[in-house]
Structure formats: C-alpha cells, structure tokens
Design brief:
Blueprint: H1 6-26, H2 30-47, H3 54-68, H4 70-76, H5 83-86, H6 91-126, H7 141-144, H8 146-171
Length: 183
Amino acid sequence: MAGPSPSALAVIRAVDAFIDWSGKLVAWTCLPLIVANTYEVVSRYGFNEPTEWASEVTMFAYGTMFMLGASYALLKGAHIRTDMLWEKFSNFTKGRIDLFAYLVLFYPSMLALFYFTGIRFLESMAINEHSANTAWQPLVWPFRGAIPLTALLLMIQGVSEVLKVWHMARTGEVLVQHEKIEI
C-alpha cells in the first residue's frame, strides 16, 4: 500500500516539531521550581526562617510543567499503556484501536476539558483572581490558563497522532517509532 500523502507527512512533521519545541520550552518551568525549593530549604533549615511563598511557587510551577508537558509526553509515547495484551496485537489492530480511542474518547474529552476550563480561566481573569492561601496572594488566572492551553496542545498533537494511526490502521506500517523513555 502507498504511504501517507505528502501533505499528511508535512502536517505530521510540522505538528511534531511544534510540540517538541513547546515541550522543551515548558521544561524551563523547572527553574522556578528548583529556585523556590532551594531557597525554602536554605531559609527553613539554615536560618530557621520558612517562607510563605515557596510552596505556592512550587505548586504553580510544578502544575504548569506537568500540565503543559502532557502534549510532549504524547509526542514521545510516554503516556501509560497496558502492554499485557497490546504487544500481541498486529499493527493493523493497534492502529484501529488507537484511531477509535482518539476519535471517540480523546477528542471529545479534550474538547470538554478545553471548553469548561476555558470558561473558568476567563472568569478567573475577569475578576483578577488571587490565591487566598498565603499573605503573598499571587495571581491564579495565569495558572488556570495552563489547563485549557494543555487541552489545546494535546488536540494539536492529536492531529499528528490520528494521521499516524490512520496510516497504521490502513497499512499496518508504523510511521514513527517513539523513543523509549527509561524510568
């Protein structure tokens, strides 16, 4: 059977490159996480002066990194899959299962996540929502915006994944072999 069309390959390459770039950009959010935790440990245990703000910086930075990194994890094949039965399936079957899952489960879920969290983000931004957990009271709405942005990035990467599994369902040929991520 023929390979995917040149336009499908161009879309796959463009989406994968964009998500790869965005994932590497998101990885930089680990810097405020490291700085806040280091400062807190030195302040708390070195000077017996714990901070109020470090836990919120840690929570917001980690949450942002975790959420926005989801599309990068999808690109790299790092999401959890039960291999017990999966490895025994043919590529045709894997492609059909994944195509069904993307179209029937993934996209409706991501659209709902985008819609409902987008509404909450806009409401939060409209009232200029601040955290009430500490006297520091940082803005919350930028972090609420990470959730619909996550859904959007996942849907963008989903386009590439759907094109890949559609080809696999038709031909049995795997277009992209994900890097194995060792934990």
